[in-house]
Amino acid sequence: MNNKTLYNQRNKEESLKLLKKEQFSRNTISFYNYTKLNNLQTIRDKLFLSFNNLDILGRIYIAKEGINAQISIPENNIDKFLKILHSYNSFQNLDIKKAYEEGTSFLKLTIKIKDEIVAYKISEKEWNLSKTGKHLNAEEFNSAIDEGAIIIDMRNYYEGEIGKFKNAIIPDVERSQDLLPEVKKLLIKHKNDKILMYCTGGIRCEKASSYLMHQGFKDVNQLDGGIIKYAHEINNNNLKSKFIGKNFVFDHRMGEKITNDIIANCHQCNIKADTHENCKNQSCHILFIQCNNCKEKFNGCCSTKCAEFIALPIEEQKRLFKNKEIKFTAQKTKKIKPKLADLNHKK
Q1: Active-site residue list
Q2: Is residue 251 part of a domain?
Q3: Which helix (H) or strand (E) is 79 found in, with range?
Q4: What is the mean pLDDT of residues 31-49?
Q5: pLDDT of residue 8
Q6: What pLDDT was estimated at residue 337?
């Protein structure tokens, strides 16, 4: 089989042009399942061919431990998609969650084989998915908050910067592999207290809750279906949202507005803002929060240096790089992030 049929060959610009020409509506959905999988390459290739034929876009990870998927699917192909998915015994009983706020989410289809579907990189001896935290729906989660439970955000700190449950602890990490040791350290004095965990769609809490239970925590609970499902339940059942701000998502939308609260600030001028951007200078590409005024002022860049660099002719940019006259270190948000103490104490 030709490899070109098994991988997306379009660049970003081509993908955006095709999306603009589409005459149908799309739904953004997500699902995961911890289940034993074999023959990963075969599953990966079959899923790619089937989903690509249905014009499905998105990001799917498969590993021996299961599947983790966020996709954009044409509404008219949902039934066909479900039929394909349910043809696999391992994908029968999936909790499929629809995005709370729609928009252009994915530009291409990517399916990758991974060691883990969430890259915690902890020993298999430290968790057991037959023993996970108690799953709470939105109403139960709200009640537990009112009763004074300890709330821990199981996401990267920059996700909690724009949206969080009030009084939640935000770990100072930006990689999944650093999260669990940090959470254990933050909660060490609360082994006998009621712990509430939450994440975007639920998947990060599954193994994390099992990990904490293995570490001796007595009362571990997790938000069923994550913030995405919580937002729908709050809306459908006319409940008050205890989550404030935006739910960060790892796609082209960058966030879903759950409430109108803006709890973050522009990283450049410090006014209220909650829109994440990647620096337009591809050699930097740092993730940061930027208001509209600074976006215009810095031409979508994180600094004057980056803005001045991308204003140069392409050939001049290449020359500077080749001669090592200028250097950008690919970084994440720690370059310009706020003090975590401010984030954790923000109501």
Answers
A1: 199
A2: no
A3: helix 78-85
A4: 96
A5: 82
A6: 55
**Confidence at residue 3, expressed as pLDDT on a 0 to 100 scale:** 64
Query: For the whole model, what pTM was predicted?
Result: 0.89
Closest to 197 (Cα-Cα) out of 130, 125, 132, 250:
132
Asked, for residue 309, whether it belongs to a domain, the answer is yes
Q: Give residue for tokens 């609360």.
A: 190
Q: What domain range is 323 assigned to?
A: 276-335
Last residue in a domain, options 113, 140, 175 = 113
Higher pLDDT, 6 or 237: 237
- Per the document, the length of the chain is 347
Specify if 62 maps to a domain. Answer: yes
Strand 134-136 relative to strand 194-198, pairing: unpaired
- What is the CA angle 51-57-61, rounded to 5? 75
Closest CA to 161 of 20, 251, 272, 34: 272
Three-state secondary structure string covering 104-164: CCCCCEEEEECCCCCCCCCCHHHCCCCCCCEEECHHHHHHHHHCCCEEEECCCHHHHHHEE
